[in-house]
Amino acid sequence: MGPAVSENRVTKVAEPAGDLVVQRPQGLYCPPGDFYIDPWRPVPRAVITHAHADHSRRGHGAYLATAISAGVLRARLGAISLQGLAYGEAVHINGVRVSLHPAGHVLGSAQVRIEHAGCVWVASGDYYTSGHADDSNATCQPFEPVRCHCFITESTFGLPIYRWQRQAALMAQVNAWWQANAEGGRPSLLLGYSFGKAQRLLAGVDAGIGPIVVHGAVQPLNEAYRAAGVHLPATLLLDDIAERRLLQRALVVAPPAVHGSAWARKLGDCSDAFASGWMQLRGARRRQGVDRGFVISDHADWPGLQRAISATGASRVIVTHGYEAVMVRWLQQQGLQAGSFNTAFGQEDEPEALTDGGPGGVDEAGDGQTVETQTAETRPGDGQPFDGQPVDAEPADGQPAPAAPPSPP
């Protein structure tokens, strides 16, 4: 019997014997390795692709992630049992070879390469690449294609309308807007997610225009980036600005949730802007109620998704969050076996912004639903090591997939 087809015509991937990743109520599960990837319910062992709230949640017994993401993960999740890996370093988990490879999305973001019984699967998590092959996110290691039989890909911006400009051109637009506001004596409030987007904006702006102020949710994440060796310009908190004339030339970087808040009103008469890939849509800026919209995303655009998928050499592709139906249809038209997983991914990073302070918001999933922190009694496997057994490091570009792909299930 073939895979089931849902009413919206998206092929839903079943759980045939031999698949290295299947969908369970807790999240994406690797049966031979007995671990989950970015689970949305508490599980004993979780491999985490990156520290955004929809991919890394409290309550798991043990975590495996990139070593460089450890600072951000602990800042957001508290005291967790975490095993960190360098990019390309491999471990064995119940006979399954697991390694993490750069995704280009945010600091420490990774694709998860899984190899077992001659078969290779890769789960992308969120990743950034675009139609411009020489463009990348300057605040983290660029996306690295990893050869595999099956590629599990996001599709946040999986529509042909989404095509990013070059980074240099986008940041020139931001700097020109800030410069014009500074000359007019108006603060520039630039809204972007506190983890990843904010640091990417800071790394690209011209700090010579004026002082740079950040919201309290952004500052500790800046420190995590700096500790990881990422250069960011000096930043201040709003309370550090004693003179109004300095604030009038300032760029203020804050999470979107503060728009219209008491904190934002302290800026007085300011010009505001939103940095997001969604600004590509007609009317999005108007709906956000801001003066400007900058089309800046940490996710792959339509040609970037196509380029990344092609580079894996995968004959089978499973699509997760985003425009799954469109992407699956396009992949099938290219002659690939394609289906989708129904995940809880897709809303990244607003919990901490709502607290008007640092990390620690209650809306862990970013979907408006509060999540109670697990207690020691209810948290599965708390304090137990992930127990990934080291093996020889893999090359930086990942192991090539075996020559003969597995037979379709």
Describe this structure in words.
This protein has helices at residues 70-77, 167-183, 197-204, 219-227, 244-247, 262-265, 284-288, 302-312, 324-333, and strands at 22-24, 27-30, 35-37, 45-47, 62-66, 82-85, 90-93, 96-102, 110-116, 119-123, 150-155, 188-191, 212-214, 251-254, 271-275, 292-294, 316-322, 337-340, 389-390. The chain contains 9 helices and 19 strands. The chain is of the alpha/beta class. The model is unreliable at 1-16, 349-383 and 393-409 (pLDDT under 50). The protein folds into 2 domains: 22-161 and 299-390, 4-Layer Sandwich (Metallo-beta-lactamase, Chain A), CATH 3.60.15.10; 167-294, Rossmann fold.
Brief overview, please?
The protein is an alpha/beta fold and 409 residues long. Helix content is 19%, strand content 20%.
Write out key terms for the chains shown.
single chain; 409 residues; alpha/beta; Metallo-beta-lactamase, Chain A; Rossmann fold; 2 domains; eight-stranded mixed sheet; six-stranded mixed sheet; 9 helices; 19 strands; 19% helix; 20% strand; globular; disordered C terminus
The fourth-level CATH homologous superfamily of the largest domain is: Ribonuclease Z/Hydroxyacylglutathione hydrolase-like
Tally of distinct domains? 2
- Distance separating the two termini: 10 Å
- Radius of gyration from the alpha-carbon trace, in angstroms: 21 Å
Beta content comes to: 15-25%
The stretches of 5 or more residues where confidence is low (pLDDT under 50) are: 1-16, 349-383, 393-409
According to DSSP, the number of beta strands is 19
- Helix/strand structural class: alpha/beta
Largest sheet: 8 strands, mixed
H and E string = EEEEEHEEEEEEHEHEHHEHEHEHEHEE
Tally of DSSP helical segments: 9
Which term fits the overall shape? globular
